[in-house]
Amino acid sequence: MNFNDWRFDGESEPSEGYQSAKKSLALGEAQRCGEAAYNGAIVCSTHRCRYQMTPKMKSRVADEIASALRTRAPAPLDAALSTMVSAPRAKVTTAPSAIEELFALHVRADKLPAPAREYQFDPARKWRFDFAWTDRRLAVEVEGGIHSGGRHTRGAGFEADARKYLAATLAGWSVVRVTGKMVRDGSAIAAVRELLARQR
Fold first, then answer.
1. Residue 120, domain extent
2. What is the pLDDT of residues 137-158, one digit of tens each?
3. Any idea what the Cα angle at residue 149 is, between residues 143 and 151, rounded to 5°?
4. pTM (two decimals)
5. Is 88 a domain residue?
6. Residue 44 belongs to some domain of the structure
7. Which range has highest mean pLDDT (57-71, 150-164, 165-179)?
8. Angle between helices 27-38 and 55-72 (to 10 degrees)
9. Residue 20, phi then psi, degrees to nearest 5
10. Are 56 and 116 in a shared domain?
């Protein structure tokens, strides 16, 4: 393996973990290299490291990982896996996106009434709004992935959204759809501010 082929993004000096990894591919050294990357020495191309490893090196690393799993696991692996498979699946909620958090910050900065987040306006279909002023029947949907071919722009996702917004309109909701750019440039919060002012 040629560790000199590793690249460094930014201006960080090679990390201590990297220097150690140059001398040995032991699991502990590789782990320290990863920790150093996490702590700010930005080391990339671990995939290159993997593909440049000889079969013997790959086998040794795999053996060390397997040994670590056997000796350091808090419970026998089979029992842990059995528990995981048979346990009821917990409900996973979607974390708000960074652009949604920015919009929420704009709402607070403008001292507008606090909206409900992830408001379920149709329990039967489990449809939600990103933000909802329930007393005004005003909702905001922050549409992401419009340039990256996200779910909202693909056939089935677009169709589902159209049905959702139609149902919301028939139920008396005003739905404002905004993009990330509209949130960043302030036009989204300006529109909401005006709509809330009209409904006073």
1. 98-198
2. 999 999 875 554 555 555 688 8
3. 55
4. 0.50
5. no
6. yes
7. 165-179
8. 80
9. -65, -40
10. no
Give the chain's domain count: 2
Interval 121-134: pLDDT, tens? 988 888 999 999 99
Quote the pLDDT of residue 139.
97
Last residue in a domain, options 81, 116, 143: 81
CB 127 within 8 A of CB 118: no
- Is 18 domain-assigned? yes
Q: Where are the alpha helices (DSSP H) in the chain?
A: 16-23, 27-38, 46-52, 55-72, 77-86, 98-109, 155-170, 180-184, 187-198
36 within 8 A of 18, measured Cβ to Cβ: yes
Is residue 89 included in any domain, yes or no? no
**Segment 5-47, tens digit of pLDDT:** 444 444 444 445 445 545 554 445 445 444 444 444 444 444 4
CA distance 3 to 45: 10
Cβ count near 2 (within 10 Å):
8
Boundary of a domain, candidates 22, 53, 81: 81
Q: Which amino acid is at 189?
A: I
